[in-house]
Every structure is written in C-alpha cells, then in structure tokens.
Amino acid sequence: MARASAVLIIGGGEDAHAAVRASVGASAVVRWERSLGAGLAALVERRWGATLLSLELEGVGPELVGRLVTEPKAGDVVLMVDRMTPRLAMEATRLGAAELLSHPLDEAALAAVLRGPREEHERIPLPAINGEMELVGSSPELLEVFKVLGRVAESVATVLVTGESGTGKELIARALHRLSPRAGGPFVAVNCAAIPEDLLESELFGHERGAFTGAVARKMGRFERAHGGTLFLDEIGDMSLVLQAKILRALQEREVERVGGEERIAIDVRVVAATHRDLPAFIASGEYREDLYYRLAVVLLHLPPLRERRGDIRELALHYAAHLAKEHGRPLRHLGASALRRLEEHSWPGNVRELRNVVERAVLVAQGEVLSADAVRIESPRRRPTAEALPGYSPMLSLAEVEALHISRVLAAVDGQLGRAAEVLGVHRNTVSRKAREHGIVAR
Amino acid sequence: MASSPGEPLARFWCIGLRNAAQAPPARRRPGPEIPSPRGISWLGRAERSVPVRAARVKNNSSGLDRERMDRRTIRVGQALDMLSSLEDFDPVRTALVGASFDDPDHSWGASELYRTVESRLLDVEALEGEIPRLVREEATRLERVWRQTAEALRALAAGDPAGAARALVAAGEAEEEAGHADAAERLYGRALELGRKPRDRSPEGLALRRLGRLAKARGELATAIRYYRQGYDIAEAQRDAEGRVIACQGLGNCHVDEGRWDEAERWYRRGLELVGERPVRERWQIESNLSIVTRRAGELEASGRWLTMARVTVASSGDREADVYLANAEGLLRVAEQRLDEAEAVYNAALNAAGSPAARATVLINLAECLLLQGRAAESAEVTREVERIAIAHRLHPFLLHVYLGLGAAARATNDPDALVFYEQALTLARAGGNASEVAHVLREYALQERAQGAIESAAARLHEAAELFGRCGSRVELEATMAELDALIN
Predict the structure, then answer these.
(1) N or C: less crowded end of chain A, CB within 10 Å?
(2) Which CATH number fits the domain that encloses residue A359?
(3) How far apart are CA B224 and CA B254, in angstroms?
(4) Minimum distance, in Å, between the CA of residue A282 and any CA atom of chain B
C-alpha cells in the first residue's frame, strides 16, 4: 500500500479530519463529507487512496461496507466507530476493511494505514526459480566446500560434515546423495538429538514385536530403510556411549540387529554424519568414542558460518525470497536495497537457517511487489531468560506489573509509535492500545 | 473429547472451549473456559520402559561454562521421571514445566524443530523461587478442604445432613480444582451417601452431577451418563430447574462424546425448554452446543441457525464474554463447510477479542488446524508453537497434548519421519492424564503417521489398541471410524 495522496472522509467529526490531515501531510487531498449521500457522491468523482467511513452514520450497515471495500475508487476503507467491540472488529475484518478505529482516532494507527510502508526506490529483482532449494553461495569459502563435495560424491566413503547450527549440513548430505551413484536409492535422515534416547536405538536399528513396552509390532529401522541409498545421521554428537558402540558396530560389520531380535541383517548404506559439536574435545573428555569418530570422519567437510562468508548473504536472501514467495503465493518481484542492507548488517548466529526464517517471515508480511526493510524483523539472539537479563525487573513483580512495565518500556523505545510497539511485542496494534489504556500508560 | 467437554471434536486436536456449566465451581463463568490447568494433567506420569539418559548439555564454550551448564541443567523429562513415583508432588511437577527453558545449545539446530516440553531444561533455581507460592496455594486448598470438612461436621451435629453433604461437595470441588480427582471423588461419594437421607435431596443431585463430571473427564462415559441421569431424576423430583438444566447439558455432552447425536440433541433441547425464553447464560450455551452437535451430525444449515440463535441470546443478555466462544464455534462451522478462508478470518478476529490465555490458546489451536487444511504446514506449526508458549507460561498444561498432536500433524503433512517425536510426547501426556479416550485419539493419529512411513504392522497395532479403548469408553462413532481405518490398512 502506498501513501494515500487523496483521502475521503464520510461522517465523523473534527477529530477525524484533523487526524487525517496530520497523518497524510499538507500536500494530500483531504475531503470531508458529513452526510452519507454527499460522501457517496464524492466517491464517484475521483479515485481515492483511502476512504474513512463512520459506522455511526444513518444508513451505514454491513451491506454498504461490503460494497465500499470492493469499490476500486474507494481505495483502502477505514471504518470509524464511537465504541469499539470485539464483534465489530471481527465484522470489519470479515468485510475486508483495512482498519477499524474508534474515536478519538489513534493517529499512529491511522498513519500506519494511510502512509503504508515507505516506497522502496532501490530494488533488486528476484532471480528466476529453477529446481528445489539447494546450496547457494559463491564465496571462496563455500566454493572450497563444493570442490571437496564434488570429489567425494561418487565414492562410498563415510563423510562427517561439521559446522555451526544452521549452516546447511543436511543440504550437503542431500547433495552428496544426489551426486552419487546411489541417487536412485533412498535418502533417509535421522536427527539423533531430536529423538529421545530411549527411542533412538529402535529408530536406527528397528525392533521386534514385544522387545520393550510400546513395541507393539515389528519395525524396520532407518539403517534398513536406507539400504541401497544414503543414511544421514544428523547431530551425531548427541548420542550416548552405548549407542555410539552400536553405530560403530553397524558401520564396521555392515550389518544390523533389530532390538529384541537375533537375526543379523546385511545393509548396503552410505553414511553421512553431521554435528555442530567439537567432537575431538568430547573424545578428550571421554564422552565420545575415538574409533567411531575416525570411522565417521573418513572425509571431513567443514561448513563455515555465515558471518565468515558474508558475501553469500545477498545471494541467499534473493534465493530464499524468490523460492518462498512462490511457495506462499506472494506477488514479490524485488528485494529492497534497504532490506538487503538490514540483512547484511546482522551477525546471523543462527546462520543460514536463521536467514531463511527471517526472509520467510518477511515474505509473509510484505505487501506489494517489493520486500522492503519494514518487513524484515530480526530478533535478538535467543537467550535463556533470567532476571539479570531484564534489568530493572524485580523478580517479585506481579505479571500485570511486568506487563505494564514492559509495554511502557517498549513504547518509550519506539518513540510511542503504537504500530512499531505492536510489531516488537508481537501483538495487534489494538491490543497495545487497549493494554496501554488498562495500565494507564500514555501512548503517543 | 473429555478434556474439552463443551465441544465435540470434528478432528481430535481441533479443540473447543469448555462448557462453563461443566467447569468446577470457581471457574463457573460464562466465557471461554478450558480444562482446569491443574485438573487433567500429566502429573501422575506414565513410567518409561527404558531409563532416560542424563541430559548432556555441552557447547563449544570454555570448560568452566560447560561445567556450570552440566551442574545446573536437567531435562524436564528426567525431572518428571524422578518424581513420578512420589505422591503429593503434583504442584511441583506442574511448576517445574513453567520453570524450564529451551535448550540454548540446540538453538538453530535441526533438532530445535522437534523440541518438546520434556526436552526443555529445568531451571532449578527458578523452581526453588516458586516454592513459596506453591506452599501458599497448597495451604489455601487445604484450608478450604478442612474448613468445609468442619462445616460438614457442624451441620451433622446440628442434625442437617443436607448441609453436611453440601459442605463435602464444596470440599470436593476444592480438590477437583487442584487436580486431585481421586480425593474429590471420595468426598463427592461421602456427600452422596449423606445426601440420600434427608428430605431435601438437592445435595444428592449436586453430588451426582459432580461425580458425572469427574467420570466424563476420565472418559468413563457410561458411568458419567448414569450419574447425570440419576442427578436429573432427583432434580426433577425436587423441582430443581437449575439442576435439571445442568444435568441435561452433562448428558448432552456425554452423548456427543459417544457420537450419539440424536440423544445429545434430545437432552440439549430438553435443557433449552427448561431454561425457557429468558436470555440467560445457560441458553446461549445450550444453543451453541446444539450448533455443535448438528455440525457434527453433518447438518450444517441447522448448525448455522443454532449459532445465530446463540448470538441473538448473547446480544440480548449482554454477556460479552461469550463472543470468543461463539467466534470459535463459527470458525469450526466454516471449516466444516470447507470455507477455510472465512474460518481463518473468523479465528483471527476472535484472537483480538480473546482476553484470557486459555481462550487465545483454544482459538490458535483451531487456527493451526485451519492453516494445515489449507496446506500451510509451516505456518500451522508456528501457530501451534505459540500455543505451547502460552500453555507453559500460563500453566495450561492440558493444551500441551493438543500442541504435540498439532505439531505431529504439521510434520506428517511434510512426510517427516521424525514426526514420531511429537506423537511419542503426546502419548506420554495422554497416558499420564488417565483419559482412555484421549489415549485412543493419540494412538489413532500416531497410526496415521506410521502408515505414512510404511510401518503398516505398527500402525495396525496402534489402531487395534485405539479401537479397544474407544469401545471401552463407549465412543461409538470414533470406534466405527477406527475400525474402518483398520480394515483399510489391513486389506
């Protein structure tokens, strides 16, 4: 939505007129008609960027509102009401109104509707999409990885991919599989850290019926399912010594035994493992088997963190924006230069996964064809919440007191802008407005 | 589903808001209600067959940091296992979930997608900080129970067994609110015995309705129906209109869980007749329930009419707390009509009106299902994670079961084999909750996941167990559907 250069107000009072005038600036056309008839007549005269309609006017009902929102000349329809109720809010949304505001009009909320996101002048076209999401980047660091990948893909050697969380280790594993002679076979992944320890053994090796409580039937393990293909053992560092021994045995003997079974089952599997752990350090402390490490790390591939290959951020952002816009059916065609700058400035502790998530959220909230900086929301690094992390927050405050304190802090931090505060707090603007009133906080 | 008695479910994890008439006394409010956060929970935790390993929380930081992390962290699953055999630890079990946090060592790792409540790390210091509050709450509960006991004795001494029975019911309600179903049942049972003797049998009727509520929460539908029916008869004999209305609602709700739509409708209509034309809270509740039961029976137009009538009643009564409840019901109706865009808009609007965390969580769970039906699995999972945050922050633990079923469904939609993590967590919660119907529902969903992964034998075994449990509960429709799925799987 672009800035509204012409606004029609139907009904309402002086406050509405003044608020609109303040929101759109002196250069915009603002016309105020006090009666419904005069307002509707004005509507057909020209194309308006936005139309504000008072629900208090006689003759205004759902049918009229429904027709107004589908009238191209009306632009964005903002409804005004004396007293806000949840039912009205729901109806307004259902009817397609851009916003429902109560008197006196909240200038920040009104401005957010009438101004819309800033126009982005510098923009970068999104690339054409071909194929699935895959490894993207052309930094020297990543090119080195690609070279090793190309050399080892055709062999059967076990590969250990290391790198921080979110660097794309599974993508490497999938690329290894796709480029290998086993590409026609299955690619089976298992996340060793996600599956509880008591289930992991049976997931990997399968089990016979009645092997343990919950083993309701015979089950094939992932080693068996990957027969003729590739088994990707993600987060291999998160595994007990007992299970490490069983994995080692499977790798050495190329056979597995189901839990509770006696039969030895031959497997033809190429194993690719990955971890973000410092396995040599774990070996030194006796928490990881050295023999397993050397069995896994026949080929060692290290993926550098995104902060060490910042040159890839632009390419990755464009790639994800293009793919995700298509996936979510969004009409995006460009990435705004300011949005890219914002992405390039971040340190990306969550690496490519974090970048992807941020771009996905931005794609979902972006309006129009340009993904602008307004849509890019980067959260601060995740930390364990502690009282110390919230300076000034006594652990003895009630929830309501903490809420009031936090809302007032956020409002202060964003210079009292309700829309921006709502974005930070992750709630609707009306919620911030309501809670501010409840707590007696004066918002701008 | 028993944990959400006011709302029969179109799909298992599509939950509704609790019928206020069924809520424990302190929660008898017309607005959106949910299962008591301390009621049906996973406090009596199911034992695992294999011991859970010690939490290993390592990172790439210095040895000193690692040592500190090792010393200070324990997984919620481990903590619950440790407390599982100890009685009277229910409040601690509930509190420790609130005093937990996501494992920072897995931030941005692939396994973060599969985190569950048991994989969180316990902040022991935060739990210690909670102890004074827990003690205060326990003291308050005990005081209520014991004061009511004394009141019962005083009434008995004064030759007023009806008064004694009422006091014992009040004591039972205090226990029920605290999630002590067994203690509540014993107190209601004693009240029932005392209430049978006097001329004024209304306390007997009250005790029977409370016993019906407890039985329904456990998924023991036949028992619940028997209690409610007896309660209804006594209320009728005593000309206790309010008691009859509540019994009618209870009977309707039980029959909905059974899948006996005609019977449910009959009892709701009888309740409506008893309420009369007055625009009271009970009226819109019953009209809303009639909307639900007709929707479940596939009569969508009738469902819409009942919903409109409920809205008219609410408009007349000025009972604004009903808005979220009815918006949620409207969303479910739109989903049944396959008008998913409209359902999404209704849920989003309802979120703005949802005042309590429980109401918000309920609407979000249904919104997540709506998104999943539209093929938007990632968004559905994100919305469901929001419910998890609400459930943990506000001690609304019964929602966690729905959270993991929802996450499992979203993962299943992407053919993710590791979705089993969510079903295992849901199964643990359901078994610990002790409601056979909930266990059966989880097994059925788990079987769908296993079928999708080609584990036919295992899926069939789970469907067998689910069918057996549904049969035991008397959930006719669910039993038939499960048997049909089993037939399709085997043949």
Answers:
(1) C
(2) 1.10.8.60
(3) 7
(4) 9
